[in-house]
Specification:
The chain is mainly β. The protein has one helix at about 305-320, and strands at about 1-5, 10-15, 20-25, 35, 40-50, 55-60, 65-70, 80, 90-95, 100-105, 110-120, 120-125, 135, 140-145, 150-155, 170, 180, 185-190, 195-200, 205-210, 215-220, 235-240, 245-250, 255-260, 265-270, 275, 285-290, 290-295. The chain contains one helix and 28 strands.
């Protein structure tokens, strides 16, 4: 999801593994996206457009860019899809109770359950092992672990989350350990909330992603450590113990980091473009034509012949242009 400066300047972008853009779908205002890997269906929030035609919705989009369905009543910038059954967690607001809610809906939009007692949810991440959710509440500065059935299992207070970053929490799919960013610090905790690792020295760590194969962690740092006003950022690679292996300077602010589980490439969203790296931090390519790429989700290959031809041409074009 590419975030614009104004409403109707937000775009859901589909790309090849090389970064070539295949589709751009206009949204009014959106942020976190998720994907149902069973059918390669993308879910995205539609908070509101200029003409108030579509607002407070979550939208289902197929791989060809067709809007399959819209479900009303969810003015949520955060979203998480359960890959096991296609259910979706989104946030909503209770005007009666003046509080935030986490809502779980089925793939057909049917309400499954609601969990109350939140202030302002900034980021959520799902544990694919059991369908539980970790919710970063920026208003109350609390990280909460919630079971698939809606029970609050654990709360960790005193966490400073970044308001506009949807990927501040990541779950290790192998063991359920949770990594999250908190301003100048990156934490690793167990499912029970025990702090396993803590790493300081960041400026504004805004996004985090886990390589499921090596369990290394990549962190996007919005600014340069020691200079909160710098219009440049870094990405850092940490091992599973929280030790920094590698830090790469980016001559732009970093907003997003994601690891493609199908080829282990690293994708970083910065001002104006998306940059692809290999596991060692080597630049594989840069894709311009963005504003502020904020959220990313990865789909498996559908064996779509037209798409494969387009992406193959793009791959060889990139190679021969270097």
């Amino acid at each position: 999801m590419d975030v614009g400066d104004l409403k109707n300047e937000f775009y859901l972008v589909r790309m090849c593994p090389t970064g070539k853009q295949l589709l751009r779908i206009q949204f009014g205002q959106s942020e976190a996206i998720g994907i149902d890997p069973r059918e390669n269906i993308v879910w995205a929030p539609e908070i509101g457009d200029v003409d108030d035609i579509h607002y407070n919705q979550v939208v289902k989009v197929d791989s060809r860019g067709n809007v399959i369905d819209r479900f009303q009543g969810y003015g949520s910038p955060v979203l998480a899809v359960d890959p096991n059954d296609g259910s979706v967690w989104v946030s909503s607001w209770s005007a009666v109770e003046s509080e935030g809610l986490l809502t779980k809906i089925a793939p057909n939009g049917k309400l499954i359950r609601k969990v109350d007692g939140f202030n302002t949810l900034y980021s959520i991440a799902l544990d694919p092992r059991d369908g539980s959710i970790w919710a970063a509440d920026g208003g109350s500065r609390t990280l909460t672990h919630i079971s698939a059935s809606g029970e609050k299992l654990f709360e960790m207070p005193g966490i400073f989350f970044h308001s506009s970053s949807p990927h501040q929490v990541a779950v290790n799919p192998n063991n359920g350990d949770v990594w999250f960013t908190s301003s100048q610090t990156v934490y690793k905790i167990s499912t029970a909330g025990q702090v396993l690792e803590k790493r300081d020295g960041f400026n504004t760590a805004v996004a985090i992603a886990i390589d499921p194969f090596t369990e290394d962690v990549w962190v996007a740092n919005f600014g340069t450590p020691g200079d909160e006003f710098a219009e440049s950022g870094t990405i850092s690679k940490l091992d599973s113990y929280g030790d920094i292996i590698l830090t790469l300077e980016i001559h732009s602010r970093a907003y997003m980091v994601g690891i493609n589980p199908y080829d282990r490439t690293l994708w970083v969203g910065v001002d104006g473009k998306v940059i692809r790296y290999d596991d060692n931090g080597k630049v594989l390519g840069q894709q311009p034509g963005f504003n502020e790429p904020q959220s990313i989700a990865f789909a498996k290959n559908e064996n779509d012949l037209v798409t494969e031809i387009e992406c193959t041409i793009s791959f060889y074009s990139d190679r021969f242009s270097k």
